[in-house]
């Protein structure tokens, strides 16, 4: 429908007609045509933009027949502001957002056909292509079959329209006007950043191309990555003075942008620019455009890490000065409830509820989605029917034998995630001299004197690798014979839990680990209910946490300094302490085969990277980190694996079973291709290198 509207508009506005296949090109160049000749087409365009995101972001104008009217007063201008917000990609949509099922190293859809045939599933099967690229956030043309994938250039067009016209309404205070303009400048920067992460060098939509432009004037170029980064950072800097330090009224304004959010995003932008993908990447040494410009620098520049470190520290200082701190669960002030949990369970709640706790009680979340996930059917006030609400339903384990008609847990945490987490000594299990790594798959019985009674029922048998692990392992993952802590599985305030997972052949659950961390403790599964016993707990999914910035700063400092020092350790150790672990140096000296690893810059880099993969697991961050580090070959090529699906006894069950072919990974998979439609329509565009 959008394509039809564009075709209608381009014809009626007096410009040259274009072939239908060229519409993607016009969209991707953000030719918003800032002109007064919008007439009645604007009402159709605004009608089909989509909806916003609950509360503040829930209305898209549907009654604005002319551009003048769209900015004639405060009310309609605010609606257009919400339209600019409505283009934010849905970070909780597992089938269409890049960060979930495009690889199978963190989440796994276990052969479920709908996920396997989704845009993400096709990419995970190595089927990405240039004819109709999957997850086409560039022009949206290739993915017009699914509205969950939105063209970021259409978003940028709307941002530019707003910025061109925000000075028109007179019934608005200058303070409010300045804030709105600043918000849209940030959104403009964010949409460019999202494109940069996916595609590398991009077209910069600095302003809308006028409707009177000749075809040649619309043939724009992808700009070098460094120029893109500078432009995006400059936009954020321009936005900063007009933004509030934090939201004045979080209850009604959640989802809007503050200075702390803007500084955090700038920090992540500059860390991305300093990372191996974009900072001296020899894989792209031959990538030039038709002007001869090198699009990704082949020479490493250490100054980029210093620039990133400065920005990250500025973001941390702003966050801490405005009351943000790492979340800690208090069993005596859990909202309206108190709990009778032991210290081990309190630590697990600190980890789990750092994601799912309500924002008014969670000072560790800097930016979160606006919508709350309302029910297991995926209905929400926000970003669509394929939101996290539906994902959580399909991740939730089947917990009672009489609920066999409820086929839950279609999706799972990847089997490989179980090996990622540290031992209880705070070091990798393969590097822990006290951990029996060679026999980690062998069955082991939980005994009464074992400290694992908090996590595994006494007398039950599970894999040896499920014992002697760090608290995040038990907070993040549900596993066979491990407790699944929900309010409905305890009747004494969390002192004990009754339900543990049974996932062997012939039992209740379906084979696979459960990403327990993102399933709120307050969720429930009612015994005796068939069909759909799952009742989710609504929460707002974090987009940026303070822990992310702490680890990012440790990473940047490690790159800046000649060797790791106390300042590098300080920030990673804050996160580890919050997760119940000793500091890096102490842990490695006490338990690792290589106790000096944290003193070596290259080894410390690996430690920080693993810490990020653990701390931010299942939060939609791993995909972006692996790409900027250029470590996809290590992770994305891992074969899809489960415990043996036919095993009914411990000895038969705890055998790794590779049930599919691993993905073939090459350097070209780090960046998305753009559609050949766009390449044909604009001869100045070059395809993503390798595609």
TrEMBL record:
UniProt entry keywords in alphabetical sequence: Cell outer membrane, Membrane, Signal
Domain SusD-like N-terminal positions: 124-248
Compartments where located: Cell outer membrane
Main location: membrane
Superkingdom of the organism of origin: Bacteria
Ranges for domain RagB/SusD: 364-691
KW GTP-binding (keyword) present: no
Pfam families: SusD-like_3, SusD_RagB
InterPro entries found in the cross-reference section: SusD-like_N, SusD_RagB_dom, TPR-like_helical_dom_sf
Keyword field contains Heme: no
Family in the record: Belongs to the SusD family.
Protein name (database record): RagB/SusD family nutrient uptake outer membrane protein
Species: Niabella pedocola
């Amino acid at each position: 429908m959008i394509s039809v509207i564009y075709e209608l508009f381009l014809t009626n506005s007096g410009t040259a007609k274009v072939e239908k296949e060229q519409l993607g090109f016009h969209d991707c160049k953000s030719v918003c045509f800032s002109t007064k000749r919008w007439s009645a087409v604007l009402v159709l365009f605004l009608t089909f933009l989509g909806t916003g995101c609950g509360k503040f972001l829930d209305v898209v104008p549907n009654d604005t027949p002319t551009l003048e009217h769209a900015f004639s007063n405060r009310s309609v201008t605010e609606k257009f502001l919400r339209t600019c917000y409505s283009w934010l990609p849905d970070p909780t949509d597992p089938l269409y957002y890049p960060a979930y099922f495009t690889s199978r190293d963190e989440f796994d859809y276990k052969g479920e056909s709908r996920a396997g045939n989704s845009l993400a599933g096709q990419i995970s099967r190595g089927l990405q292509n240039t004819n109709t690229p999957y997850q086409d956030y560039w022009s949206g043309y290739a993915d017009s079959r699914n509205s969950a994938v939105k063209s970021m250039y259409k978003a940028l067009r709307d941002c530019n329209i707003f910025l061109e016209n925000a000075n028109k309404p007179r019934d608005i205070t200058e303070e409010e006007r300045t804030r709105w303009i600043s918000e849209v400048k940030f959104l403009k920067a964010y949409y460019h950043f999202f494109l940069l992460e996916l595609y590398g060098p991009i077209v910069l939509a600095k302003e809308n191309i006028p409707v009177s432009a000749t075809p040649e004037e619309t043939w724009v170029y992808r700009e070098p990555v460094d120029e893109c980064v500078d432009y995006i950072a400059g936009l954020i800097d321009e936005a900063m003075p007009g933004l509030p330090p934090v939201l004045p009224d979080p209850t009604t304004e959640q989802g809007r942008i503050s200075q702390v959010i803007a500084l955090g995003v700038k920090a992540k932008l500059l860390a991305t620019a300093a990372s191996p993908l974009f900072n001296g990447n020899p894989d792209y040494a031959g990538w030039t455009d038709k002007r001869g410009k090198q699009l990704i620098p082949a020479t490493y520049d250490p100054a980029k890490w210093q620039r990133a470190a400065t920005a990250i520290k500025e973001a941390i200082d702003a966050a801490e000065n405005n009351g943000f701190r790492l979340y800690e669960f208090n069993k005596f002030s859990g909202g309206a409830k108190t709990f009778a949990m032991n210290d081990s369970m309190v630590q697990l709640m600190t980890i789990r509820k750092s994601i799912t706790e309500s924002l008014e009680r969670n000072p560790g979340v800097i930016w979160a989605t606006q919508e709350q996930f309302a029910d297991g059917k995926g209905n929400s006030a926000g970003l669509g029917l394929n939101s996290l609400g539906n994902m959580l339903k399909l991740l939730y384990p089947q917990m009672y034998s009489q609920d066999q008609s409820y086929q839950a847990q279609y999706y799972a945490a990847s089997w490989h995630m179980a090996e990622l987490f540290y031992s209880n000594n705070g070091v990798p299990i393969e590097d822990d001299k006290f951990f029996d790594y060679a026999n980690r798959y062998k069955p082991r019985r939980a005994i009464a004197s074992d400290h694992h009674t908090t996590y595994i029922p006494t007398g039950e048998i599970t894999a040896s690798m499920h014992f002697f692990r760090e608290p995040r392992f038990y907070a993040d993952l549900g596993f066979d014979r491990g407790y699944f802590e929900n309010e409905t599985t305890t009747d004494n305030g969390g002192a004990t839990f009754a339900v543990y997972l049974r996932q062997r052949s012939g039992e209740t659950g379906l084979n696979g680990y459960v990403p327990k961390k993102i399933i709120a403790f307050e969720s429930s599964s009612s015994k005796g209910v068939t069909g759909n016993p799952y009742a989710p707990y609504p929460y707002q999914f974090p987009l940026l946490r303070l822990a992310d910035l702490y680890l990012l700063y440790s990473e940047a400092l490690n790159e800046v300094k000649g060797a790791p020092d106390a300042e590098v350790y300080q920030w990673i150790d804050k996160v580890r302490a919050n997760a119940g672990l000793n500091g890096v140096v102490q842990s490695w000296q006490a338990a690792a085969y290589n106790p000096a690893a944290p003193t070596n810059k290259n080894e410390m880099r690996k430690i920080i990277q693993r810490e990020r993969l653990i701390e931010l697991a299942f939060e939609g961050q791993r995909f972006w980190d692996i790409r900027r580090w250029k470590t996809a070959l290590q992770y994305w090529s891992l074969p899809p694996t489960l415990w043996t699906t036919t095993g009914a006894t411990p000895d038969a069950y705890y055998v790794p079973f590779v049930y599919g072919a691993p993905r073939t990974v090459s350097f070209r998979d780090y960046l998305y291709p753009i559609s050949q439609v766009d390449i044909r329509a604009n001869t100045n565009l070059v395809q993503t290198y390798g595609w």
